[in-house]
Amino acid sequence: MSQPVAANTKWWSGGKSPFNIEYGKLMMWYFLMSDAFTFGAFLISYGTVRISSNGWPDPNHVFQSAPLLGNGLPLVFVSLMTFILIVSSVTMVLAVHEGHNMNRKGVVKWLIWTIIGGAAFLGCQAWEWTHLYHEGAWWGSNPFPNADGTISTSNFANFFFTITGFHGFHVFSGVVINIIMLIMTLNGTFDKKGHYLMIEKAGLYWHFVDLVWVFVFLCFYLL
Prior knowledge:
This protein is mainly α. It has one domain (61-222): Up-down Bundle (Four Helix Bundle (Hemerythrin (Met), subunit A)). The chain is built from 7 helices and no strands. The chain is elongated and about 65 Å long. The termini are far apart. Mean pLDDT is 88; it is low at 1-15.
């Protein structure tokens, strides 16, 4: 027969959820699910407006510039941005792996590279926004004509700056989180706890940010 459960016993007392998952990791998954709904709502709204519009700017014309290289290079710069973010996801995987092995030096090394990758992506996005702003694009203003040559509305610019800005805020938050994780690792916080679960939770957030960028890249830069 199974042993009776004491009246004052709580299911969270052992740090486990009812799904046999560490409680903090479960909460991170709940947060990421809710965040995915938000991004999904933005992208569905974007798709709905684009499909219902008579025309839309050609991304090969809008995103054709790169620093130091000039114009006439469609999607080259944003491809570099995407590559940087994907590489930062790989370095985050390596940081989590080193955490599983309780290797503090390895965690520090790969966290630093992840932070550098995130900061580089933000720097690239800042350049892109600045360049588009100087070309006359901003919320409520869109200088780019539709692909068929007709005058375009400001919907393209409104959605672009809103969605990429929202994603950029997530990347910035991820960089801050990783810096905090780095400081805690350097202070030996996780060695004292006997595990690096916080690195794994930060990794879940970072991978989510990278995954969302794939959809943003597809919707704005390729289609």
